[in-house]
Design brief:
The protein is α/β, with parallel strands linked by helices and about 130 residues long. The chain has a single domain, classed as Transcription Regulator spoIIAA, CATH 3.30.750. The protein has four helices and five strands. Helix 1 runs parallel beside helix 2.
Length: about 130
């Protein structure tokens, strides 16, 4: 028997990743951006997300704040993307910070100890400081 991924819809929910262009905190610098992530981050969205982060970094952003308030699920492949991008940014004095993840998402970051590297904030205003 041959397993063909195309025969199955393994993406339960769509994922939307976009750079926020309005409702930005007043204290935000030019090297900082906020990214809104909605839905589920899984193996199928990991490459797209990595390419998006790479383009932000290439544009000159050193500080990326991820609004996770509407994120419903994340798997290890996307946690890896967060970590890889954070390490890349840290080399130039930057970071990835997390904004308002749900209790379920916060527990994933705590269980994996990623909350020690990817600091969690309850608002965009605090995250961009």
């Amino acid at each position: 028997m041959v397993f063909n991924v195309d025969d199955y819809d393994l993406k339960k929910e769509p994922c939307f990743i976009s750079q926020r262009t309005s409702n930005l905190p007043q204290n935000m610098t030019d090297e900082t951006c906020i990214v809104d992530i909605t839905g589920e981050l899984n193996l199928y969205s990991a490459r797209e997300m990595q390419e998006f982060f790479d383009s932000l970094i290439a544009t000159g952003y050193k500080k990326i704040c991820l609004d996770l308030s509407k994120l419903q699920y994340i798997d290890s492949s996307c946690l890896g993307v967060f970590l890889k991008s954070h390490v890349t940014l840290k080399k130039s004095g930057g970071y990835i910070r997390l904004i308002s993840p749900s209790k379920e998402m916060t527990s994933i970051f705590q269980l994996t100890k990623l909350d020690k590297m990817l600091i969690i904030f309850d608002s965009a205003e605090k995250a961009v400081l």
